[in-house]
Amino acid sequence: MSESILCCGDRLGAADKPLTIEQARVCVTGADRNRPDAYPGIGDFIGWPGGIDRMPNGDLLLTHSAGYWHSSFAQPRQIEPKLRKRWLAEGWPLDFAAPTGGRTMACRSTDGGKSWSKPFTILDHRLDDGAHAVMTLRNGTTVCFVGVQASWYGYSQAPKGFQKDIDGLNTKQFVIRSTDSGKTWSKPIGLKSPGDFYERAHGGRPVELSDGSILWATYYQVRGEKFLYGAIRRSTDDGKTWPVISRIIRPNNSIDEPAIAELKDGRIVLLTRPDGAIFHSNDKGLTWKDSGSRIVSKGKLKAPQLIVLADGTLVAIATWNNLRVWISRDGGLTWTKDIPLDTSSYGYPGSYFLDEDKSILVPYCSSGRAPNRVYLVRIRVNAKRDGITLLPMVR
What we know:
Elements: H1 21-24, E1 26-30, E2 45-54, E3 60-67, E4 78-79, H2 81-90, E5 103-109, E6 120-123, E7 128-136, E8 142-149, E9 152-153, E10 171-178, E11 189-190, E12 198-200, E13 207-208, E14 214-221, E15 229-235, E16 244-248, E17 256-262, E18 268-273, E19 277-281, E20 289-294, E21 302-308, E22 314-320, E23 322-328, E24 339-342, E25 352-354, E26 359-365, E27 373-381, E28 388-391
Parallel strand pairs: 4-9
Antiparallel strand pairs: 1-27, 2-3, 3-5, 5-6, 7-8, 8-10, 10-11, 12-14, 13-14, 14-15, 15-16, 17-18, 18-19, 19-20, 21-22, 22-23, 23-24, 25-26, 26-27, 27-28
């Protein structure tokens, strides 16, 4: 492992004073801190830290992407002319030299998250790729979920010359597996998309059920359809195959960037962008019912994470203008008001629950554009279950 670097978060307040977010958060990596080594295609977008988990050897592994922008299209690339003009006006470097686009990378911590190794590549697909989530199964196998982005955008179907890339889709999902605590990884396993335009995911930890099967929520688009649909994938062979077991369709709205968790009573709960809608499943993800509950009353809730505490308390972490937290004591039917976590940052969080001290690790982005950083903060839900405490990063 390369030398560990404490990027920030080394200024801790007195024990009797609450920490500020600036004191509590650690900068894991970024354009200007613990930057990845140079490679063709790297710019200043170091972000999308959807995955963090404990490895079998005790290390923490945090996965993220590295590229030049919000999406780091590989070359050659083709963007619909009107969209290209708009993006260029917004600052997108669409002529950036990037033969294989962005990469899926990871950082490793051996001291509970206080310091992190230099980022290292775990997958470099010939197209732009980035990790959504990482999870260590009970048998010690680690699975990482990766999205691969085609080099075209703004068209209703793949332009000529791009039709053979990733089945002609705009985005396709892959899985890679490790049996040595994330040091080496299998070749990527491509997943057949439930939609004919794209399948995507954003964060949202998978759920390993008591029978050893694993559920993972994605979302997809059918060509020509206005709204997005949800998909639940299930693996019964330690993450080698992932058939779709259910599709979730909402009338007049989307299932977008869904997150799932298993409640104490065995039900599966799902939270989705854009309105924070809550769905429940009583049959391990086969069928779903809209609860009628909504976390937010206006605006867009993005990239949610769900964590279930030992007493059944449900915690949601998401971007709603910036990074915020919500808490539910009844399986998602009612929620606290939004609790600010980092109002200076964009968010798009990951999450990992630390069983040993009942705290939660939350990695997230400082921005949705370049330059960017990946932060990590440790929080604990208070005893009243109506607020959170920022904690120092300790083993």
